[in-house]
Amino acid sequence: MTSQRMAHGTGPGSLTPDGCSVDYYATLKPRGEPERIHAAIPEGASILELGAGAGRITHSLLALGHEVVAVDESPEMLAHIQGAETVRSPIESLALDRTFDVVLLMSFVIETADDELRLSLMHTCRRHVAPDGCVIFQRQPPEWYDTVQEAERVTDEGNYIRMTNISRPGPGLLLATTEYNLGDRKWTQTFLSKRQDDDYFEAQLNEAGLTMAGFLDGDRGWVRTVPR
């Protein structure tokens, strides 16, 4: 099963293969993520950012003194990134002939319900991290899957977001649609994700040659892993 079938979107302008709106993502600002990452890694660490999008995190990491290589499948997303080396590639097939102090895989990409794809993503992280480096994953805390419900909110940028059509089609699975509104424009992204409990996550990491090494700031949604 492909990632495109796991997530898809609708709306005006360019959409990525998994349904993200380029125009919408280009408006988003960081919410403390770069500082959290910076505090957990060495000063000046080289970073491979997988799924960098329009550079929401990239630009702040550069400002904090890190050399960043930003990878994304969407050329329209990468066009918004300035100051970093960019690489257009699906994450699962990325094969750069170098390693990095830190590899980042955020935005809950690791929670794809496609088990084969998830393992491929982990293998990509493993082959690009230095022997003494780390890989940082962002996931939903496992208990989120038990409590998530339809909701709406207004972001700091003034955008209206609504999560709807929530269902649980199988053990650990969540199917939902997120609606994004910016002025008179509206986008939707429907996704199928899979809960990543610690033991299950660790078993997958081990298969890819990684192991859990703790959490960032005690937040179980941010997992620090290292090569085995």
Secondary-structure element pattern, one letter each: HEHHEHEHEEHEHEEEEHEE
- C-alpha-based Rg, rounded: 17 Å
The helix tally amounts to 8
Q: What is the CATH architecture assignment of the domain at 20-141 and 196-227?
A: 3-Layer(aba) Sandwich
What is the CATH class of the domain at 20-141 and 196-227? Answer: Alpha Beta
Structural class: alpha/beta
Could you explain the architecture of this structure?
The protein is of the alpha/beta class and 228 residues long. It has helices at residues 3-6, 22-25, 33-40, 58-63, 75-78, 115-128, 144-147, 198-207, and strands at residues 7-10, 47-50, 68-72, 85-88, 100-105, 129-138, 151-154, 160-167, 173-182, 185-194, 210-216, 219-227. It has a domain at 20-141 and 196-227: Vaccinia Virus protein VP39 (Rossmann fold). The chain is built from eight helices and twelve strands. The strands form two sheets. The chain has a seven-stranded mixed β-sheet, with helices on both faces. The chain has a five-stranded antiparallel β-sheet with strand order 1-10-9-8-7. A hairpin with a 5-residue loop joins strand 8 and strand 9 (173-182). It is globular and about 45 Å long. The two termini are 29 Å apart. The model has no long low-confidence stretch (mean pLDDT 95).
